[in-house]
UniProtKB/TrEMBL annotation:
Pathway entry: Cofactor biosynthesis; riboflavin biosynthesis; 5-amino-6-(D-ribitylamino)uracil from GTP: step 2/4; Cofactor biosynthesis; riboflavin biosynthesis; 5-amino-6-(D-ribitylamino)uracil from GTP: step 3/4
Entry protein name: Riboflavin biosynthesis protein RibD
High-level lineage: Bacteria, Pseudomonadati, Bacteroidota, Cytophagia, Cytophagales
Taxonomic source organism: Hymenobacter crusticola
One Pfam family this sequence matches: RibD_C
Family matches, as InterPro entries: APOBEC/CMP_deaminase_Zn-bd (IPR016192), CMP_dCMP_dom (IPR002125), Cytidine_deaminase-like (IPR016193), DHFR-like_dom_sf (IPR024072), Eubact_RibD (IPR004794), RibDG_C (IPR002734), Riboflavin_Biosynth_HTPR (IPR050765)
Residues the record marks as active site: E54 (proton donor)
GO molecular function: 5-amino-6-(5-phosphoribosylamino)uracil reductase activity; diaminohydroxyphosphoribosylaminopyrimidine deaminase activity; zinc ion binding
Enzyme Commission code: 3.5.4.26, 1.1.1.193
Amino acids binding NADP(+): A158, T200, D204, G288, P289, T290, V291, L292, N293, S294
Length: 344
């Protein structure tokens, strides 16, 4: 792998990142086409159901006569099956490109090596696993969904410097600053669903929408085992698609679905299995300590984002006692520090 290959694949990964929140439930994919060391076309998967990255990159090439001598960099193995769009592997074969450099193989069994086989069968040179670790992190939601058959689970909470996330008796307290709250709304737009438990819904009465960022509001996922939430609470207002997981039966309403689970110890495996069937690839968990501690205890999480503010409460509801390893990133937003952990 040359320095040029690394540079071009990194450019393709940067392009892929632009599809975050828009391509879902498809993976984010970027593509760069070069000819004699010069970029002649590039693109990314902009919208679910729209053209894939390879299609957009080829459409950006002004002189297609260069394609038979071109080198194509793509962050995920070109698809080989008909979905909402034709197979990208077929398009690359049709255009007779010379070489294809791939970051990650596609774990989807509908593709999983078949795209590469099509390219090689047509005489196209193929190189794989270029910046594979970076590509896997970028598409971690997609890989987790395909390999573990459940959504990618992101835990999030804000805590004071003395380790509290709410006041006494779950009294809501504004902990994070304005910039940190804006970042949280960006996270909401990035994920397909947002999950809270009964106490958070009851005491905070949150909207769980995206107000301080651009993007689509996530599916609201509420745990309300005994249907104890007042009907007037925001999460039951039908303004945003919402799924309530419960042990009781209740009729559905527009934009509001009640899913009855078996009363057992495996609540979260049941819940995640249902979200998997709905093709929900990621969940941001903004629940309270009961939900957060349960998921951490059972190892049912992939990423934890902990915002810590310099203020002190002196008492109240304790934040989860993490002891988390796998610190991946540490950032500062004014009086807030962000710690991002990855469950290895």
């Amino acid at each position: 792998m040359s320095d040029f290959d690394t540079l071009m694949m990194r450019r393709a990964l940067d392009l892929a990142r632009l599809g975050t929140g828009y391509a879902r439930p498809n993976p984010v994919v970027g593509c760069v086409i070069t000819h004699e060391g010069r970029i002649i076309g590039e693109g990314w998967h902009r919208q679910y159901g729209g053209p894939h990255a390879e299609v957009n990159a080829i459409a950006a090439v002004t002189d297609e006569s260069l394609l038979p001598e071109s080198r194509v960099y793509v962050t995920l193995e070109p698809c080989s099956h008909h979905g909402k769009t034709p197979p990208c592997a077929d398009l690359l074969v049709e255009k007779k490109v010379k070489e294809v450099v791939i970051c990650n193989l596609d774990p989807n069994p509908l593709v999983s090596g078949r795209g590469i086989d099509k390219l090689r069968a047509a005489g196209i040179q193929v190189e794989t696993d270029v910046l594979a670790a970076e590509g896997r992190w970028l598409n971690r939601r997609f890989f987790t969904f395909q390999e573990k058959k459940r959504p990618y689970v992101v835990l999030k909470w804000a805590e004071t410097s003395d380790g509290f996330l709410a006041g006494p008796y779950f009294q809501p307290i504004q902990i994070s600053g304005d910039l940190a709250r804006m970042v949280v709304h960006q996270w909401r737009a990035d994920e397909q669903a947002i999950l809270i438990g009964t106490r958070t819904a009851l005491h905070d009465n949150p909207n769980l929408n995206v107000r301080e960022w651009f993007g689509q509001a996530p599916l609201r996922v509420i745990i309300d085992k005994n249907l104890s939430l007042p009907p007037a609470h925001h999460v039951l207002d039908g303004q945003i698609p919402t799924v309530v997981y419960t042990y009781r039966e209740r009729a559905n309403k527009p934009n509001l679905e009640f899913v009855e689970l078996a009363e057992a110890d495996d609540l979260f495996p049941q819940l995640f299995a249902d979200l998997y069937r709905r093709n929900v690839q990621s969940v941001l968990v903004e629940g309270g300590p009961t939900v957060l501690n349960s998921l951490m205890r059972d190892g049912l999480w992939d990423e934890a984002r902990v915002l810590r503010n310099s203020k002190k409460l002196g008492g109240g509801i304790l934040a989860p006692k993490t002891g988390l390893a796998g610190l991946r990133e540490h950032l500062t937003f004014g009086a807030d520090e962000l710690f991002i952990y990855h469950n290895e």
